Structure formats: structure tokens, C-alpha cells
Amino acid sequence: MRILLVGAGGVGDAIAKIAARRGFFELLVVSDYDESRAQRTVDWIRTKHGDEVAARFATTQIDASDPDIVASVAREHGATHVMNAVEPKFVQAIFAGALAAGADYLDMAMSLSEPHPSDPYTQTGVKLGDDQFAQGPDWDAAGRLALVGMGVEPGLSDVFARFAADHLFSEIDELGVRDGANLVVTDEEGNEIFAPSFSIWTTIEECLNPPVIWEEEAGWFTTAPFSEPEVFEFPEGIGPVECVNVEHEEVLLMPRWIDAKRVTFKYGLGAEFINVLRTLHMLGLDSTTPVRVRSDDGPVHVAPRDVVAASLPDPATIGPRMTGKTCAGVWVTGTGTDGGAREAYLYHVSDNEWTMREYDAQCVVWQTALNPVIALELLATGVWQGRGVLGPEAFDAAPYLDLMARPESDGGYGQPWHVEDRLA
Amino acid sequence: MRILLVGAGGVGDAIAKIAARRGFFELLVVSDYDESRAQRTVDWIRTKHGDEVAARFATTQIDASDPDIVASVAREHGATHVMNAVEPKFVQAIFAGALAAGADYLDMAMSLSEPHPSDPYTQTGVKLGDDQFAQGPDWDAAGRLALVGMGVEPGLSDVFARFAADHLFSEIDELGVRDGANLVVTDEEGNEIFAPSFSIWTTIEECLNPPVIWEEEAGWFTTAPFSEPEVFEFPEGIGPVECVNVEHEEVLLMPRWIDAKRVTFKYGLGAEFINVLRTLHMLGLDSTTPVRVRSDDGPVHVAPRDVVAASLPDPATIGPRMTGKTCAGVWVTGTGTDGGAREAYLYHVSDNEWTMREYDAQCVVWQTALNPVIALELLATGVWQGRGVLGPEAFDAAPYLDLMARPESDGGYGQPWHVEDRLA
Q1: Region B247-254: what's the mean pLDDT?
Q2: How far is A313 from chain B (nearest CA, A)?
Q3: CATH class of this structure's domain B2-151+366-409
Q4: Residue B303 distance to chain A (closest CA, Å)
């Protein structure tokens, strides 16, 4: 396996660092618009693991917005797999470039949605991933695989859902992805500050788009942002967090392969973050349309959302000042394999202290990066095989979760996951 | 009287329009950095009142940041009075320019404060107006008057305080300025939108600076922003509004001329606006320090606060889509002239429907502009006389309030004010 990794931001960097401990690939080319970022990643790997490991890595410059360039870089390095680790707005270009180069493709976020033009909070418009699934026949015909939504959420959450359907439940009422954390960031003086652990730009996009829900009868439909608030109790000391419906890929992926009466995604934003997003929206500061603003160099035009992002700490830099854990999982309700009612939360927790120590990566970013590496390993070893445009739940979940949980000393990733039964 | 009006923004425009109905001055020169704004004001006066009235107005360009230019424009037009109607950051330049030109001076906001360097939420640093009062001896020696803080708040509020001290109370416990409104702004479709009726830039400055309080024993001291919230009941249908301490000129002015045990300013921001300001502060979007932001023309540097201001509707343009009233006043407690306990709210209400119909000016801006015109008239007629740097409470309040309340048909401004006794 020869991997072209597109993007050496937080998640791309962590993908390369996690892969450096594994032997399943021949070459991993770290590429970025700014090649020095790719170089920094490979330098870290060389310092941590030595020249022999670093020899399986290369760096290159890439423009992820141009499918021809993506294809030509992939061909140049003989890439068998293109791993997309940049912002979702580049999905289409990298997706097309990989197919043109005859490579398989993985991403962690799918092609973007567009709200329904007249009824956005009831009906779907263009859905997440629609553009990619529309090209499924091309991938199938070419005998190539596009494994879409293969991060942590979507990604690990979809694997959990498949595992629950295959091994824990005979009938599923709801697959409810629930994501929450107790992360706290402090400034130099130790005072708690507001510093989202994930791109605020993407978070605004996710949270202010109409959330999508799937139901057996109704199919896909949307609601107003922040709908159906619930306090979900997260495990391992994280505790209760206010969660609301958010537009997310799982809702578009799971119903295609798994039988369930309802599929939802609720994000544990917490009351403070929800208030921030509502306020930004009320003030128009979520907008991506440039406004004219005075500056010392005369009037300029900037998108308010870019200014919000520029005013906050870079999520990639806050790891050392962050404490706490993040939890990704699926809350499944229905009938267990024994025929009785069952409610179970399948989850994985990532602790920032550990990810910083082991990988110099903050835990949200690291947890996202872990999963595509596991998937690549299963594809490299032939445990997972497929063609066309497929989600993670199209594959057998058991070997995935086994490889993930098994100790590193036994060839696994040493990342245990858990099933918490919640029915009294 | 020959007046140089510096600034033809919302308040400057309304000052000229209000003055156009009065005969006390010989010439009013409307000046602005953008002379077309001044021209627009005079064009409105010509259309509304005819050539004869408009003949007492002129326009010119001015750079309010340069005292030499202010002085030279004042001399050129033989200005006897310089009326400052621009942002407080230009106070020092216009103040100096007026004195250099040998003119009297009026403003509606005083020289800016600087927080205490180590203990900002307990101790004052540089206070509002400190820089101006320090130059009092120069004005006194020159035989010239600087009447500072002569808008509605500060301004009318200080006149009310002086009136209460002279005519309603024998001893004052607290002079509590209380400002509130029930203004609502709607978009084209009639949906309520967030659109502050006053410059958000200035509002952030006022509300996030440490609020200042004066007490007989302690003198001036500060608190954390938004301290001492209280729900104040405003008259004429406005109703209850949540008010909090805010840094404001009255607290610096009133104790210099009026005996009171305590002086406070609370602004009826309402819970929603307080939340907006807190959120902007938490995100660093109140900052005036430029941040680097991507734009279609490459990276640029903009101050987040300027972007917030640019993203919201221009307060000068929302009048036609606004409904409601704004109330300015002083809540006075203590001992009445009859020796019994007394609590009274002295106030003036401005109704947006009326100010739009009569002046094409929204009510908050119009109410601010009304007061310096009344003061100029009292100075022109010699009813008010003084030298040095003085606040409105240094002058007799009775003729001011009489001129304000008397019907236009009887030579007044037709703006009644009220005393509401609140002690059961």
C-alpha cells in the first residue's frame, strides 16, 4: 500500500504519526499546500522513531482544490490510496483526482450539503455525501473503492452501529450518535478560556445547517438548528452534557446499510457553546459573505466567520493547555439478541493527557486520526475489501474493533472500546 | 452665535435639523470628513424649511483628528462655538482646536478612560474626562467655556440631577441615572432582528470598561462589568428592563457640583444584549487590536470590533424599521424639601415614530441631539454663562427644563419632561 495523505493540518499530522507505529504500508506521502507543514510532521516522526521508520515517509506540495493536480501527484508517487485530511470543501476535487489516478480513496467528512431552498427546516436539499454517492457507479465500474466518512464521527460511530446490529441487537429502534467531552482550556495564567477543540469554522457549518434525521417511515428530513436538546450522561467521568441535533454524516450513512427505525446525531455542545453559536448567528458573524471593514490599510473585505476563527486560539495549538477527555459513541435502543428490550452505549474515550504525551496531538484531533489508519490497515491486509462508494458500516465491524482494542504488544492499537448497558 | 458642528453622522445630522427650527444662531457650519454627508443634511433642511433657513447653514470638509485643522476651519468661519458630534476618540483634538481658535466648545462624550493597570475592577485608572478637566485652568484663563457631556446622557441627565438638588430634595442619597427602551427593529419581512440603536463600537467600549461608581466616603471606584443588575420599571409603557452598571460620564460629572451620597449609572441593556456583549468579549471579538484574516485579496489585518460593527445594520439607517420609545432619566432618592423621604424619577421619553416623522432621525440619536441645541440656545441668549471646563450641572437647570418643555408655539422645544414619585 502506497498512501497519498492530502493535508498536514492537525488530523493529517496525527494520521502520519499514528501510521508511523504500523508496518502495513510501503510509503506514506504527506502533502500540503504548505509543504513545510508536511515536513514538520515527518521531522517529528524521524525524531521519535528514527531514520528507518521515516524512510517510509515522503513530503510534497499539493493544491487540493485541483483534481488534476491531485491525480498527477498520486500518479507520481504510485499511490494506491488517497487519504483526504483537509477541509470538506475540497472533497469533490480530491475524490475526482483519486479516481482519475486509479487509486482508492478515504475521507472523514463527506461532500457538503445545501439547504432546501424554500423549506430548509423541514425538508432536505442536497444532502451530505449526495454528490459522492451519485458517482458510486463510476467507482464501481472502475473497480475502485471510496470509503467515505472514515474518521471518528463519522467513522468509528458507524463501525459501532454495524457491530450493534450484527452482534448486540435483533431489532434496532434508534441509532443515536452521541458525542461529548469535558475538555477545559486555560490561558498562561491558568484561567479557563473559550477555545473550541475543533475548527470553529466547521463547527459553525455543522451546527447552523439544518440538522438531518432519518426515520423508517419519513426517510430523511430536517429540523431547526439545536433541536431536541437532551442531557446525555457520558462515561468515564465526563458526566452530563447538553446535546442537540446537528447535521452529520452518520445520519446519511447508517440507513443505507443498517436496519433501524430512526437515526440521529446529537452533539454535546453544552449550553455555553450553543449560546455562542446562536449569538454569532444573530449578529451575522457566522456569515461567509465578505463585509466591507475599515483597516489601517484602507477598506478591506473579509468574511465574518473567518474573523471569528482568526480571533480564537488555533485548535491545533491548544493541546498543551487542555485537560479532559472526549467521548465518541452510539446509543442504541431496541431488542437485544435475547429478545428483551436493550439500551446500550458503545463508545471510545480519548484522554488529552495521553494523546499529548504519546503523539503531541490533542485528543479530539487524535481520535479522529486513529480511525482511518485502522481502516487503511484492514484494507492493506485484505480483511476489508470493497468497490464503489461505501460507508464504514458496509464492512464487518468485528475485526475492526478487535484490531483497535488489542494491545500494541499483541499487534493491535491498544485502544479499548466499551459497551455500557443502560436499561435498569 | 456662529457654530462649527464637527460631524454629520446620525447625531450631527439631527443637531442641524433641530437647530433649523430655531433662530438663536447666525451661522451653523456642518462639517464632516466626508463633506457629502454634511451636504445631505443641509439639503434635507433646504427641502424641509426652504432657502431662507438653509442660508444660515454651510458645509465644509474637516479632519477631526487634527487640532490645527479644527482650529483653522473654526477661524475661517469665525466660529464662536465648536460643537463636537463625532466619536469620543476625537475629543482631545477638537477640544484643543476650539481653544486654539478662541471658540467655546461643547461635546456629548468626554475624553476616554484607561483602566487601572493592575486592579481595573476596583480602582479607577485614567477617568472619563480627566484629560479635559486637567486643562480647565487653560480654558478659564482664556475666558472660554468648554461645556462637556452635554447630550442626553450625559447632558439632560445632569440637568435633571441639578434640578432635583435645587428644587425637589433637601438631601440626596443616590443620583442613579437609568436609561432604558423598548425599541424593536424588524427586517423587510417583519421579523425582529438584532440591531442596536446606538453605535455597537461605542456600546462595547462603554459596557466592557470597568463601570465607575462614586460614593461620598470612597470617592470614585470601579467594579467588574455588568455589576449590580437590577430590573428598573420604565414609564410610558416601556416597562421593566434589566439594568447594569456601566462606565458613564454622569458619575464623573455630578459629584463635582452636586451633593449626593452616591452616584451611579445603570444602562437598560436587557438580558439579550448583556449576553451578546459577554459572548463577544469571551470570543475576543470586542478587541480593537487587528488580527490577521484571510480574504480573497490575500491576508489582511482587521480589528474584530470593526467587523462586528460592519456586520450589523448601521444604527443611522434602522429608524424606518424601528418601533418603540427610549427613556433617559435620573432616579433620585433622599429627603424631599418637605423633610420626608422621597424617591423620584425625572425623565424624558422619545418616541421613534414621532422623531422619524418630524426629523427623519431615529429616536435615540434624536434625543441625544436635542440637548446640545437647547444648551447652545441658552448660551446664545446669555441665560447660561460660564468659563472653564464645566458640566451641565454647573448651570441652572430650571430655565433649561422650561425651554425644553414649553410648546413650540410658545417659543419652546415642545418636549415635556416628567417627575414620577415612586415612594408608596
Answers
A1: 97
A2: 10
A3: alpha beta
A4: 7
